[in-house]
Design a protein that fits this description.
- By secondary structure, the chain is α+β, with helices and mostly antiparallel strands.
- It has 26 helices and 31 strands.
- The strands form eight sheets. Strands 2, 3, 4, 5 and 6 form a five-stranded antiparallel sheet that branches. A four-stranded antiparallel sheet has the order 1-29-28-27, with no helix packed on it. A four-stranded antiparallel sheet has the order 7-8-9-10, with no helix packed on it.
- The model is unreliable at about 820 (pLDDT under 50).
Length: about 800
């Protein structure tokens, strides 16, 4: 899209600039600007220096160019010239010769000795750090010259041969971009590296212009303006010129291209033509310090750039936000205004991003939302007010909006921004989340206004989520009231997780008043789940007796709770005994179906409790178990009471279960019980168990008292049957006797060693030097005083040796237990 970037003003014609009218039949070949002076090179070899200034007093802005102040004449046309302000000189090319003129008087300073020069260019990115040494690159016959120009002389630094004569060239730093024959090429003047770029369009003249540091613009084939970096490649799309170009200039951010129909202005931001000025036969154009002049053969025109602020405001008025943003981003801003400009850019980016969203460019909008960190309030408001006509666009807009909310939710937002984002996301989930999982997870940690949240959830029938929201805010009573109504089916919610979830929440809250109030409905439906409520660690402070009384009407729950108390090592006899009695009652209820898994499980639990619990009222249980249905359990209780005979007789005589009797004896670990088992099994009534008795004697020989066991066996028992038992008994007796003898011999040796050590210590002699002193009081020993000598040689006074088993100097413990038998 077009925009007016420049105004064009007629600045005069060539004859009017001469001080005399004798040389009016000439034409302009090149232009140059330095400060407020315009230099005109002419075909007949004349060079004019004119001053110019802008006048704002006239109705329209006007550029006034005075008549030539100075004039220079040569024998042939001036094809190129460049002002060197640092040296106050003007470098011109005429008749393939470089000449240096004084910048003010245009008098000839000197002519350079180089011949057949076709083109030259000044290095605006010099390698030298000397500001008064100018680097010049010149094209000559089949070579490129790299020169250093100073006020006194010119020096040839390097000469590079080429296959053909360069027709035009531009230098930037160490890189020279030049046209040679039908090719554009790139040369590194320092290393000599040479690179061919692409072909020159034979229908157009080769043109090269420096755009910025390390970047050139080339007139490429097919009417394309190709950007080339000094490395030899391009990083931006080419400009498509509307017609063949004869001259180029650059005024940021516009490339100014001269063609037959006039002058075109192309933006390097989007490579589009922004303005065209129709002028016929424009020959040359120059940009000097922001002043742009163009010329035909005899006419001069000033191109006055319109400030970027004016262009920017015009784009805003026309609602061309994106173009305004790109223009503002690429504007040259002073350091003083940079901060204010940055704030303006952020505001404009937000407007462009919202405009992209409104025009359904969702991916572009999201990218810019991220860049400018937009306030989510603006996006939410725009989404709710924006109406998209097509269903597909509405669906995409919804997905985009949800994605935006989820991205912004994890950002560092202000409190009101978090509330707005979470509220918008809540409304979406409440309306569209069919399974309820996302809504359930979201509601736990959302930052929304409580009243608005509750109204939203109620309006969409998400009562379970509402209760969860109350619970996350520690409003347990409100939460359980809703869950209780859901359990009773007073209200309905397809996402309700059931009474098991309510039981978990009761365990989590730990408020016993709420447990008493709301656990009843759960216990009515599932006693097992209801019992788990009272096993929560948060209810540990509740008296167990209160829970037991509460659960009397729910026997299954009561039994589970009692088992929990027993596992937690509760030391109340009534708890353990009540659990055992409940087991007994449950077994009696299922007594007709002993193969029932539940019956077997309960029986095993009862037997385990009777064996392991130390808090049972055994006498009371013995009376309860003294029935035909509990012989095994009766025997266990008898054993707990020390009535081994009664217990074993029950296993052997009543149950005919030898294995159970053996297991019983192994559990109680009383040697007398084994003899009782042996006595019970060797009677005539149990002849069939004699083989089991013999096997028991063989396997558990160490459990029996040998003499008592042999007396219990019948007289008719053959020796070879009990030979393994007798052999074991004999080996045990012999082993014990031998071990006693070994122990006696070791003690005798130890006694002899102690006697020897005592005699050695008593007979050992030592001497005390005159310089010796007590290590405790640091005083010397007197012959009449007693002393103490420790085994490590330390000497002390008798009174200083407070503990004769510990060395006072090293702390070593000496303790010799001398034992001997006299």
């Amino acid at each position: 899209m077009s925009i007016q970037a420049f105004d064009i003003i007629f600045a005069g014609n060539l004859p009017s600039f001469f001080t005399d009218a004798s040389s009016s039949a000439t034409s302009i070949t090149c232009l140059e600007i330095c400060g407020d002076f315009l230099y005109l090179g002419c075909k007949e070899g004349r060079l004019l220096r004119c001053s110019f200034q802008k006048s704002c007093l006239l109705p329209e802005q006007t550029v006034i160019i005075t008549k030539a102040i100075n004039c220079y004449s040569s024998n042939s046309a001036i094809t190129q010239m460049k002002a060197i302000s640092a040296l106050n000189q003007l470098l011109i090319l005429s008749n393939e010769t470089l000449a240096i003129l004084d910048l003010e008087t245009l008098t000839l300073v000197r002519t350079l000795k180089f011949k057949s020069v076709t083109c030259f260019h000044l290095n605006e990115n010099p390698l030298s750090e000397d500001p008064f040494t100018i680097e010049i690159c010149a094209g000559s016959k089949r070579k490129i010259l790299f020169l250093h120009l100073s006020e006194e002389d010119v020096k040839l630094v390097k000469e590079v041969s080429t296959s053909l004569t360069p027709s035009t060239l531009v230098i930037d730093g160490a890189h020279i971009c030049f046209a040679m024959g039908f090719k554009y090429c790139m040369l590194d003047i320092l290393s000599g590296d040479f690179q061919q770029l692409f072909d020159i369009d034979p229908q157009q003249p080769p043109l090269i212009h420096r755009v910025s540091k390390g970047e050139f613009l080339l007139n490429g084939p097919g009417g394309l303006g190709v950007f080339v970096l000094s490395q030899g490649f391009s990083d931006k799309p080419p400009i498509n010129f509307s017609s063949p170009v004869s001259a180029l200039a650059f005024h940021h951010p516009y490339v100014i291209a001269v063609c037959r129909q006039g002058i075109g202005f192309y933006s390097i931001i989007d490579q589009q033509c922004k303005q065209t000025i129709a002028i016929d036969n424009v020959r040359s154009i120059v940009n000097g310090d922001g002043q742009v002049f163009a010329s035909t053969q005899i006419d001069l025109f000033a191109l006055l750039s319109i400030s970027w602020e004016t262009q920017f405001e015009k784009l805003l008025v026309e609602n061309r936000m994106e173009e305004a943003l790109e223009l503002a981003k690429n504007a040259h801003i002073s350091s003083k205004e940079r901060e204010q400009h940055q704030h303006m850019l952020i505001d404009l980016e937000k407007k462009v991003a919202l405009q992209r969203f409104a025009s359904a460019r969702f991916s572009d909008a999201m990218e810019m939302f991220e860049t400018c960190n937009i306030d989510p309030h603006e996006v939410i408001s725009l989404y709710h007010n924006q109406i998209f006509s097509e269903e597909d666009i509405r669906r995409k807009a919804l997905f985009f909006f949800v994605d935006f909310l989820q991205r912004w939710r994890i950002k560092n937002l202000t409190s009101d921004q978090k509330t707005a984002v979470d509220m918008a996301l809540l409304k979406y989930l409440a309306k569209n989340d069919q399974e309820g999982i996302e809504l359930f997870n979201f509601i736990v940690d959302c930052h929304t206004e409580p009243n608005e949240t509750c109204d939203c959830l109620k309006s969409y029938g998400h009562f379970h989520c509402l209760a969860t929201y109350y619970a996350s805010r520690q409003k347990w009573e409100e939460a359980f009231c809703i869950w209780d109504r859901l359990i009773k089916s007073d209200i309905e919610d397809s996402h309700f997780a059931g009474y098991s979830h309510v039981a978990e929440q009761l365990m989590k809250c730990g408020d016993i008043s709420l447990v008493w109030r709301f656990s009843g409905e759960i216990l009515k439906r599932d006693e097992e789940i209801g019992a788990k409520i009272f096993t929560s660690e948060k209810l540990a402070c509740v008296m167990p007796r209160a829970v037991i009384d509460y659960l009397r009407n729910y026997p299954r729950s009561l039994r589970i709770f009692l088992e929990f108390l027993v596992d937690k090592k509760n030391d109340e006899e009534s708890v353990h005994t009540q659990l055992a009695l409940m087991y007994i009652d449950d077994i009696n209820c299922t007594g007709l179906n002993r193969n029932n898994p539940s019956h077997r499980l309960t029986t095993n639990k009862l037997r385990s409790l009777l064996r392991t619990s130390q808090k049972l009222e055994l006498t009371k249980l013995l009376e309860k178990l003294n029935t035909p249905g509990f012989p095994h359990e009766h025997a266990i209780v008898c054993g707990r009471l020390g009535q081994h005979s009664a217990a074993i007789n029950t296993f052997i005589n009543l149950l005919q279960d030898f294995d159970a009797a053996e297991e019983y004896c192994a559990c109680i670990e009383d040697p007398k019980a084994w003899n009782v088992l042996l006595t019970a099994c060797v009677t005539e009534a149990h002849n069939q168990m004699f083989d089991r008795v013999v096997d028991l004697l063989r396997r558990r020989s160490h459990q029996f008292d040998v003499s008592s066991a042999l007396l219990c066996l019948p007289d008719s028992t053959r020796f070879n049957v009990i030979a393994p038992f007798v052999n074991f008994a004999v080996r045990e007796v012999l082993h014990k006797r031998r071990m006693k003898l070994v122990e006696k011999g070791l003690q005798k040796m130890d006694n002899i060693s102690n006697k020897y050590e005592l005699i050695r210590l008593k007979t050992e002699t030592f001497s005390i030097q005159n310089a010796s002193y007590c290590c405790v009081c640091k005083k010397k020993f007197v012959a009449t005083d007693g002393f103490v000598r420790y085994p490590n040689g330390v000497l002390t006074h008798v009174n200083c040796a407070t503990n004769r088993q510990i060395c006072p100097l090293t702390g070593h413990l000496f303790k010799i237990d001398v034992q001997y038998n006299s």
